[in-house]
C-alpha cells in the first residue's frame, strides 16, 4: 500500500474542471487523498472501485442530478457521507435533511474544509 492509503479519501463530483482543481489542491494541502469525477457515471464507478470517506457532490453535474446519485447511494447502504455543493438558491428541507452537509457556491474554502473535517473526524 502506498503512503496515501491511510489518508481520508474525498471524491469530488463536479462537471467544472476548475472547481474540481480548486477542491483537489486545497483538500490535498489539508491532508486528504482526492479523487475526481466529471459526471455521475464515473462517480459511481469510482465508488465501486475505491474506498471513499466523503463525497463532495454538485447538485447539477452536467445533465445529471447529484441528488439522485445521493439517493441511490443511500438505498444501497454503507454509503459515505455526502456533501451537496449547490449554486441553486436553496435546497428544499427534505434534501437538506438527506445530505450530511450542504455548501453553497461560491463557497469559502475554509467552509468546505470544515465540513469535510467534521465528516472525516473519527
Write the layout of secondary structure elements.
Blueprint: E1 9-13, H1 17-29, E2 33-37, H2 40-49, E3 54-58, E4 60-61, E5 64-65, H3 66-76, E6 82-86, H4 93-98, E7 101-104, H5 109-120
Parallel strand pairs: 1-2, 1-3, 3-6, 6-7
Antiparallel strand pairs: 4-5
Distance between the termini: 21 Å
Low-pLDDT regions: none
Number of distinct beta strands: 7
CATH architecture: 3-Layer(aba) Sandwich
- The H/E string reads EHEHEEEHEHEH
Instruction: Compute the CA-based radius of gyration.
Output: 13 Å
Task: Supply the CATH superfamily name.
Answer: Response regulator
Say what the CATH topology is: Rossmann fold
Average pLDDT, to the nearest integer?
90
Shape: globular
Summed up, the domain count is: 1
Biggest pleated-sheet summary: 5 strands, parallel
Going across the major beta sheet, what is the strand order? 2-1-3-6-7
Structural class label:
alpha/beta
Number of helices, where a helix is a run of at least 4 consecutive DSSP H or I residues? 5
Strand content: 15-25%
> What percent of the residues sit in helical stretches (DSSP H or I)?
40-55%
CATH class: Alpha Beta
